[in-house]
């Protein structure tokens, strides 16, 4: 199809057309409904804010990844949100500062980055998530992981798997059982994350080599991690992971990758990634973190939450989406019959003149004598 | 509450907090469901596009009202959408160019302007609407007005009223019954829109004075318009409005203001504004228009549609929103009971440690022996 320049969308930005948009609407509603019935209150922050506000409350949000522009009203820099989590942190520590803790909030919306991520040019994605604020206990972690899995399953994901990590593992071990020179910590973390045994030894982290064996299906990997943990420095973390895993039960396949750091730059003791059958790449991430207070009279708050990026799930479900039934309403039809059939779930498509024909309009049925008749 | 600069949102941008966000979610779902069962397929365009693409397909979208910034990928100017209608036009004439007509599409999302509107500082609003593409007949107009009213009523609006207008009235009359000098047309339109009888005479539009009496409740006003229309130049328009009004019946109060132009700069023969009880200002607008083709092998397309801006409705409904029941799940509760109660509609809030207390968490009920007991 010949198209002029004016029709094209910028790189990494796409329209969702009818079939996929219908699936997206259903996926988002189903997931939000799960968050809602578990007591998570939705909030809706604006799509643009002061850049400082979006970037300052949490590590891990990079201003350089956001579209930024000057606000003629304030003469300050605004940015399109690239992540809704900092907005939830802002709301929790300002408008909802006095609300009881734990505070359960959820959100859904579009987020935009100025550049795609690696080979993926996508610059706008749907984000949906939940945050539990004021607490980052094992019980809180168990609820967050369970709710994330339930939301994804309700949205249509199958074969959900969750990969646990301990984002501050190296710091914890370096402080107690396996001392490291302060300037070696970053390198050891990096080589562990890359699963590079040679690099790990070269970085002075030979003592950390056994961690590379504590990776894989949860039950076996946690046993190996436990065996390594001679000094007991990780005992409470290991017990916490076992408790969370027991809570999940058979709702998802569980794996462990205790030294995974990529994507968990701002998490504290606990992190997890979610995957599902047939979807390449991670579907979402979560974990514990700290909401920084910016007021002298208010302490930082622990929090735990997750974010899902359902675009790949939506695309996959759209491929298998069956054609919907639709009822053609011929010219001169009785609107009372049409309204009655809509009220019991029919989707109607009305003729608006000669030449409107049921097959052309993709209808499966036709209204005849007050009844839906297959065409 | 003492807040630092970092907490504040830019002028005209706001968070929707739990109560209002729950109402917003319900309002948008209810309205979209009505559009869906009438055969309108949702599409989801991106929140940013090339400025040219947003501004060029229709008159009435002003680039100066949009946040604009340079795309580092294309080095072209992007803009945050200030109106989703042009995006629907783009989709209809590109990706869906080959889809059968009439094409029924709908949409919902956030739109942003760089400045508020007059005294209202709001810069981000929800927009929701439907477009019927390939047709702008009387039957199409009747369906669009009826669906707009039904969507608003489903969303919770009461006392809906619709004000009809004829956007090209002056052009039609000037071409036939009441000739005007070409350079007087704009002034006559402006004075009629302002309902300024003196100004109208001064602008050379004395012959148009009787139009100022054809304003008000529909049945009486259309009679007066008919009486004025000596030459019959408006006969088909008057018949069309009567047909649309008959279709609406008692679903809404109808009024006529045939020379209203403000807000209908890009409409053709038909326009309407929607109001509801207790809401100041217009809740939405609609009408017929033309989607300009940008391809030599493709003609312009007639279209008709409407946009609703439900923010004021959401705020109003949130004021009267009752407290929701919520079921507290004490520590050590049986998750099977909790899941069963969620499945039949309960919203649950789980204790996550000592100190979590049902009253503090706003719960109306407590799980005891597998049953919900009021607290």
UniProtKB/TrEMBL annotation, chains A, B:
One of the protein's GO biological processes: histidyl-tRNA aminoacylation
Residues that hold L-histidine according to the record: 83-85, 127, 131
GO MF annotation: an example: histidine-tRNA ligase activity
Span of domain Class II Histidinyl-tRNA synthetase (HisRS)-like catalytic core: 12-313
One Pfam family cited in the UniProt record for this chain: tRNA-synt_His
Keywords: Glycosyltransferase, Transferase
KW rRNA-binding (keyword) present: no
Gene Ontology CC terms, in alphabetical order: cytoplasm
Taxonomic superkingdom: Bacteria
PANTHER family: HISTIDINE--TRNA LIGASE, MITOCHONDRIAL-RELATED, HISTIDYL-TRNA SYNTHETASE
Name of the protein: ATP phosphoribosyltransferase regulatory subunit
Organism of derivation: Novosphingobium kunmingense
């Amino acid at each position: 199809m010949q198209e002029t320049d004016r029709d094209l969308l910028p790189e990494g930005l796409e329209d969702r057309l009818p079939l996929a948009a219908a699936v997206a609407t259903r996926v988002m509603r189903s997931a939000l409904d799960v968050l809602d019935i578990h007591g998570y209150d939705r909030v809706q922050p604006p799509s643009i804010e002061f850049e400082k506000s979006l970037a300052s409350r949490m590590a891990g949000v990079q201003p350089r990844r956001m579209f930024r522009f000057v606000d003629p009203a304030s003469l300050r820099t605004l940015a399109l949100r690239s992540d809704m989590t900092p907005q939830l942190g802002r709301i929790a520590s300002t408008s909802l500062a006095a609300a009881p803790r734990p505070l359960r909030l959820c959100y859904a919306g579009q987020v935009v980055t100025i550049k795609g991520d690696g080979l993926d040019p996508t610059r706008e994605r749907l984000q949906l998530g939940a945050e539990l604020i004021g607490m980052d206990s094992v019980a809180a972690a168990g609820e967050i992981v369970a709710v994330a899995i339930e939301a994804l399953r309700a949205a249509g994901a199958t074969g959900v798997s969750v990969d646990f990590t301990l984002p501050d593992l190296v710091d914890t071990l370096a402080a107690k059982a396996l001392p490291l020179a302060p300037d070696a910590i970053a390198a050891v973390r990096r080589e562990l994350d890359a699963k590079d045994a040679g690099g790990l030894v070269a970085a002075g982290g030979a003592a950390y080599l056994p961690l590379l064996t504590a990776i894989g299906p949860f039950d076996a990997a946690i046993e190996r991690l436990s065996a390594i943990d001679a000094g007991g420095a990780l005992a409470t973390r290991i017990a916490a992971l076992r408790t969370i895993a027991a809570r999940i039960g058979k709702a998802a396949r569980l794996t462990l990758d205790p030294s995974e750091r990529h994507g968990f730059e701002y998490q504290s003791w606990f992190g997890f990634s979610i995957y599902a059958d047939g979807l390449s790449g991670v579907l979402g991430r979560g974990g514990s973190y700290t909401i920084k207070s910016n007021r002298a009279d208010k302490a930082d708050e622990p929090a735990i939450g997750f974010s899902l990026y359902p675009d790949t799930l939506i695309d996959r479900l759209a491929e298998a989406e069956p054609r919907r039934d639709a009822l053609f309403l011929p010219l001169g039809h009785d609107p009372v019959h049409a309204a009655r059939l809509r009220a019991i779930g029919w989707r109607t498509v009305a003729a608006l003149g000669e030449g409107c024909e049921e097959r052309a309009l993709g209808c499966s049925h036709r209204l005849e004598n007050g009844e839906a008749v297959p065409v």
